Amino acid sequence: MEPAAEEPRLRLGTSGWSYDHWWGALYPPELSPIDWLARYAEEFDTVELNSSFYRLPFVNMVKGWAKRSPEGFTFAAKAHRRITHLLRLRDCRDELRRCLSRLQLLGGKLGPLLFQFPPNLGRDEELLEQFVAELPSGDHAIEFRHASWETPDVFALLSHYGVAPCVVSMPDYPVDLTTTGRFAYVRLHGSETLYASCYSDQELAVWATRLLALKQSGLSAYVYFNNDANGHAVRNARTLKALVEA
């Protein structure tokens, strides 16, 4: 007898949690930074590790995150920029293995791995297929930053390998809701000013409708606000969470 299929789930959070300018928006001034993750997890059940893009976290750091987060919490993680921006997807097997071995210290709390492509890397389907064909088993998503990638042929290739294209909201970039994997991955960087603008209630209502439609179609989704300036990400994530749970 096959196990019952898992109910689709919408996980909403922010890209990172360690921001001094979130005092007042999420953290009381007297709260020690070591306790910020536990406070964050009181409201959200997932977070995107943004810092792993810039620097591979230390072993004890990763183990500490796993220890200080509750059961059922999920960390998505951005792969190191050496894979995507320096090696530009070529000959990166060893670097990928190194990155994964560190993040896997999160154990069952490790969720999808996100590969953010550089904005000056245009569509190259041969390069993309070579890269995704080498990915180990697991949930993977790719965030394109050059609009030339947003084509049916690219999506068909991702679908073949079970990789999810990241749905992106940011200025001067098309919102494409195409999904190809076992899940959807959504990043909201700000609709007017990159990383800095606050989404309006009307914009969030549109996103709630989109996410509920994904869930209705049988897909789970990981959704992260990356407009951390002035605590916008916290407030927007709270509002969207309330809308999809209403």
Mean pLDDT: 95
Helix content: 25-40%
Class derived from helix and strand content: alpha/beta
* CATH architecture assignment name: Alpha-Beta Barrel
CATH topology: the name is TIM Barrel
Radius of gyration: 17 Å
Distance between the termini: 35 Å
CATH class equals Alpha Beta
Structure annotation, total helices: 8
Low-confidence stretches: none
Biggest sheet details? 8 strands, parallel
Instruction: State the domain count.
Output: 1
* E-strand count: 8
Succession of helices and strands: EHEHEHHEHEHEEHEH
CATH superfamily: Protein of unknown function UPF0759
Shape: globular
**Cross-sheet strand order for the largest sheet:** 1-8-7-6-5-4-3-2
Beta-strand percentage range: 15-25%
List the helices and strands and how they pair.
Layout: E1 10-14, H1 36-41, E2 46-49, H2 59-68, E3 74-78, H3 81-86, H4 93-103, E4 110-116, H5 125-133, E5 140-143, H6 152-161, E6 164-169, E7 183-188, H7 201-216, E8 220-225, H8 232-245
Parallel strand pairs: 1-8, 2-3, 3-4, 4-5, 5-6, 6-7, 7-8
